Amino acid sequence: MTTIEVNDLYIAYGEKIAVGGISFQANSGEVLTILGPNGAGKTSTVESIEGYRRPSRGSIRVLGLDPHKDLPKLTQFIGVMLQDGGIYPRMTPLEALHLFHDYYKDPLNIDYLIELTNLRDALKTPYRRLSGGEKQRLSLALAIIGKPKVVFLDEPTAGIDPEGRLAVREVIRNLKSQEVCVLLTTHELDEAQRLSDRIIILDHGKIAAEGDLDELMTAAQGENIRFSAPSGIDLSALEAEIGAKVTEERAGEYLIVTQATPDNIVKLTSFLAGRNIFVGDIRAGKSSLEDVFFALTGRTVEQDAQHGPSTGRRGRRHR
Amino acid sequence: MKPYLAQSRTEIKLALSQGESLLVTIGIPVIVLIGLSLTKALPLPATAKSATNFLVPGTMTLAIMATGMVSTSIATGVERSYGVLKRLGSTPLGRPALLAAKITSILVVEVIQLAILAIIGILLGWHPVGNWGLFVVSAILATSGFAGIGLFMAGTMKSEVIIGAANGIYLVLLFIGGMIMPLSSLPGALETFARLLPAAALSDALYHSIGIGGSIPLWAWMNLTIWAIGAPLLAARTFKWEQ
């Protein structure tokens, strides 16, 4: 069943176009992840779906309702986890759980939530003194306390400890099994790869790619060989040797777009051995989500996290 | 109703559990009342029969201003900067109930403040005279005006700026708001300016309603009514739920 329906969504702030006419759907029981560099339009898109922002153009329906106009009706059925904050700084997790419990008609049991999100040891600590992981787990507990049909999770595993990460994954799997639609935004591609049914990559306010993991990887570059070695290898000679396009994506990081056959790998290693070039690593096979993200946006997720709004080159577009 | 009641409980608990806030809303008014009543260090209006007849309504004005404007602006500003207001906007509580809970909290805290000041005033020899009905009406009008100013600040300024601005206005109005010194003791232009502000109007209204008895001057009613309507409207038009 279609739970979220976005048609020709267009969001502008004055002259600046944050989202330039995108359309997509998400279904019940599905985890849809939105990826993209900083400034790609992720937050504007998600906040419009949550009802926080009025789109400049286009339509959004969540459970058949307009999230901006019908927000009071919709709030019983949605759960929102902000990237950070959202809770009174002096409030303890126990107080926050009781407060949010009273907002909903048919909430989850508080003890069950405490166990599920492993918050037992932090119940009486003020929010501002909780660790990053505890804050995330509390925020997640509050997002699902009202038994929502749609859950918005913004960076749910950011800064979280390994134990908390397992708890978050477990919660998301539970939600999925209960036919809840989960809209996830994250910078952690490993989590996106692990949890998502479908992924949308946004760049410059447009959908750069959309599909399940296999579709994205195939669409991006198919099979390839990647290796790291000292910068400045003679690319023309290597291309002639292998018979495929070779690029130095970043200093010392090389990409050969070709089938990852044993023959091609032997050609590569022979080429390097003949020139006494030491190799850092060689990876052959399908692209990873990181490769897809880089190919589409021209940035790695690490660069994106460090440098703020995207200024990188525009990547190759697939759609 | 349940979300509103839960939120009101939370707002009241938060308001009554923060040390800095209690100092401004209860501590300073009590210290000023006791200190000035005992020392008589500042001039009194010619019509005042005793220091407490002037200082009890004056410190009640201070308390209402502290809760309505200072405490509301700082607390709401912090909630805004922490994303609390944004987060609550996506719960079934909703913004109207959140606002109603904040108003409830302000009124409950004010009742506690005014009761404490009244008891201390009586212990210091205050004999309330006048019309409690007028007192309640003028206090409600002023609360609306001060809360409007507080929410205007909370919804438009950064939380660090709000703390400085709210406490600064509190201090200035303490001296020119007719709360501890009669307005007539201010220099001419300053007195005229002070009469445009809600603090002076409330202190005059409370002084006439429960300090010396008699009717509240028309300028004070007009002032309180304009602020009671104008300030919340301004806050509603300018308020930004996210920082």
Would you write up a description of this structure?
The complex is a heterodimer of chains A (319) and B (243). Chain A has 319 residues and is α/β, with parallel strands linked by helices. Helices cover 34% and strands 26% of the residues of chain A. Chain A has helices at 42-50, 71-74, 93-101, 110-116, 132-144, 162-177, 189-195, 213-220, 235-242, 262-274, 289-297, 301-307; strands spanning 2-13, 16-27, 31-35, 57-62, 78-81, 150-154, 181-185, 198-203, 206-211, 223-228, 246-250, 253-256, 281-286. In chain A, the strands form three sheets. In chain A, strands 5-6-7-3-8-9 form a six-stranded mixed sheet, with helices on both faces. In chain A, strands 11-12-10-13 form a four-stranded antiparallel sheet, with helices on one face. In chain A, strands 2-1-4 form a three-stranded antiparallel sheet, covered by helices on one side. In chain A, a hairpin with a 2-residue loop joins strand 8 (198-203) and strand 9 (206-211). Residues 308-319 of chain A have low confidence and may be disordered. Chain B has one domain (2-238). Chain A binds chain B through residues 50-52, 71-72, 75-76, 78, 80, 82, 84-91, 95, 98-100, 102-105, 146, and chain B through 2-3, 5-7, 10, 14, 17-18, 78-79, 82-84, 86-87, 89-94, 242.
Write the layout of secondary structure elements.
The complex is a heterodimer of chains A (about 325) and B (about 240).
Chain A: E1 2-13, E2 16-27, E3 31-35, H1 42-50, E4 57-62, H2 71-74, E5 78-81, H3 93-101, H4 110-116, H5 132-144, E6 150-154, H6 162-177, E7 181-185, H7 189-195, E8 198-203, E9 206-211, H8 213-220, E10 223-228, H9 235-242, E11 246-250, E12 253-256, H10 262-274, E13 281-286, H11 289-297, H12 301-307
Parallel strand pairs in A: 3-7, 3-8, 5-6, 6-7
Antiparallel strand pairs in A: 1-2, 1-4, 8-9, 10-12, 10-13, 11-12
Chain B: H1 2-16, H2 19-39, H3 51-81, H4 84-88, H5 94-123, H6 132-156, H7 159-176, H8 188-194, H9 198-211, H10 218-238
Helix pairs in contact in B: 1-5, 2-3, 2-5, 3-5, 3-6, 3-7, 3-9, 6-9, 6-10, 9-10
